[in-house]
Structure formats: C-alpha cells, structure tokens
Design a protein that fits this description.
The protein has about 300 residues and is α/β, with parallel strands linked by helices. It has a domain of about 170 residues: 3-Layer(aba) Sandwich (Rossmann fold). Helix content is about 40%, strand content about 20%. The protein is built from 9 helices and 10 strands. Strand 1 and strand 2 form a beta hairpin. Helix 8 packs across helix 9. The longest helix has about 30 residues.
C-alpha cells in the first residue's frame, strides 16, 4: 500500500520541534576550512572584474574592479543595495555573462561559459508543473548518462536530505513556497556542482519559513561541503548563513568590506551575538542604500 505524503503543516511542525534544542552541525569542520584558506586551497577566484551595460539611458557601470577569493567549501554571502551588481556578478560566475575586464577562475581555469560545475538557484523555484517532485529533481541527470533507476536513486537521496522524501509523487501545485524551494535545492544538489550559486532564493518566502530554511540549509551545506555564493539584501540572513559577508557599494558595485564570521553553528536569526554583529554590518550597508537612493533621485531629475 502506497504511503500518503504528510501535509506541509506536519512536516514544518516536525522540523520546528527538531530545532528546539541546538545541536552542533554534524560533519562541519571549521578548522579544516581555516586550513584550506591558509594552505591556499582556493576554489573560486574573482580577479578585477568590471562590467558595463549600454541602454537608452546611456552607459551604466554595474561592477568595478571586483576582486576576492573563495575557499573550497566556504559559504560566502554578497550583500548590498538594489542595483549594485550582485546578480550581475553571480551571472558572470555562472558563465551566463562575460566581464568587460578581469576574469573569474574556478580551480584555476577561466570561466567562459556555463558548465555543470556551477548551478544557479534563483528566487523562483522554476519547477516544471507537469512533472512530479522526483522527476523535477531527476530532470537534469539524464544528460549525465545515468539510467532511470540511477536518476531516481539520486533524486530520492537529495529529497530525503531536504526532508521531502515522502513527497516524491507530489506535483508542484500541491507544495508550499518553502517546499518548492527545497525541491529546487535538491535538484541543484543532485547535479553535484562544485559551486552552488544562490540568488535570493528565500526572498519571496514568509519569515517563519525563511528562518526554518536557514537552519536546513546550514545542515545541508555542512553535509555536502559545497562552495556556496549566496546573494541577499537581508543582513541577518547573511550572518546566519555566511562564513563571510561581502558588503558591496552602491552602483558601480565595488567591495566595501569583507566581514568574516566565526559565530558557532547552527546559527539562528535571534542569536544575541548575531544581532550584535548585524549592527556593524548594517552601518556599512545603510550608507550604500542611501547613496543608491540619492543616485536614483539624480537620474530621475535628469530624465524629467
């Protein structure tokens, strides 16, 4: 007899109950991450990247001289005001756009096009409504030469990892927003990329679901040891998730400050130490948000 999927409410209740007592994240080795940095085991290198766009309003310099390295297994959050070029930088790392100057290296090889070693997770889950959850996760695996049974075994593994193992036969319209993003995350992880690129994947979710997924993502990252670049506008979200929080300036986007966080994991949005750290980051970010607003006001006056 086929087991019926649990309701989203019961899934969320079980996850919240599991999070009431803080436990160390299994598999996470922060000392090893520090060793990677010290030994120069760099996975991703962004070198003097600049990008300009032409439009009817004229030339816009989106990014200017962006340079930073990302260690293997590191979780880096990009934080900045709207329009500062965060998504443009992510697209360049993904190989969807090319920089005007500079280059991006993955394992010392220049990125010139999209590849299976990088997977992007967008704000929208981008799931196929005519496929069930398992088939959505397995969709990209056929190109890897896997048999159907191997595809399903791999899909089932990652669905269990995101706590949706009992929803493999469900369709997209039967899922909540948070569950859709979990399926999208499982699909990205099933491709086994070297770098996971996440463009505000939780921005459209309610606060409770977002906080829950913060805890889940920390666990998944610790278990998979993926290198992650995560874009957000939310200071606390960045500090909950990131080993580093890179604050970008208003357009043209440059690196204003690179915060390194040694706060213990798992982290939660209400942690006192995290709230204190957020004040420091927010002071830098607020200056850039105001600068972006002033620049937009000037543009509107010139266009009038």
């Amino acid at each position: 007899m086929q087991t019926q999927p649990r309701s989203p409410l019961k899934v969320f209740q079980s996850l919240f109950q599991r999070k009431t007592v803080r436990q160390p994240i299994s598999g996470f080795n922060y000392e090893q991450l520090i060793a990677y940095r010290e030994e120069g085991l760099v996975r991703l290198q962004i070198k003097s990247v600049s990008k300009r766009f032409d439009s009817r309003r004229g030339k816009t310099l989106a990014l200017q001289d962006i340079t930073f390295d990302v260690a293997s297994g590191e979780f880096v959050c990009l934080l900045g005001p709207s329009g500062c070029g965060k998504s443009t930088l992510l697209n360049i790392i993904a190989g969807l756009e090319t920089p005007d100057t500079g280059q991006v290296l993955l394992d010392k090889r220049a990125i010139t096009a999209p590849g299976r070693d990088r997977v992007v997770m967008f704000q929208e889950s981008a799931l196929f409504p005519w496929l069930n959850v398992r088939d959505n996760v397995a969709f990209g695996l056929a190109t890897a030469g896997m048999s159907r049974s191997e595809q399903y075994d791999r899909a089932d593994h990652f669905l269990r990892l995101v706590h949706l193992g009992s929803f493999e036969k469900a369709y997209v319209h039967e899922l909540s927003g948070g569950m859709k993003q979990r399926v999208a995350l499982a699909r990205a992880l099933a491709l086994d990329p070297d770098v996971l690129l996440m463009d505000e994947p939780f921005a459209a979710l309610d606060a409770q679901t977002r906080d829950l997924l913060h805890a889940e993502l920390q666990e998944i990252w610790a278990e998979t040891a993926k290198t992650v670049i995560f874009i957000t506008h939310n200071v606390r979200e960045a500090l909950v998730l990131g080993d580093r929080v890179i604050v970008m300036t208003a357009r043209p986007g440059r690196i204003k400050r690179d915060f390194r966080s040694n706060l213990p994991r798992p982290r939660y949005i209400e942690d006192h130490a995290l709230v204190d750290a957020a004040r420091d980051v927010l002071s830098d970010l607020r200056e850039e948000v105001l600068a972006a607003a002033e620049e937009e006001t000037k543009r509107e006056k010139l266009a009038a």
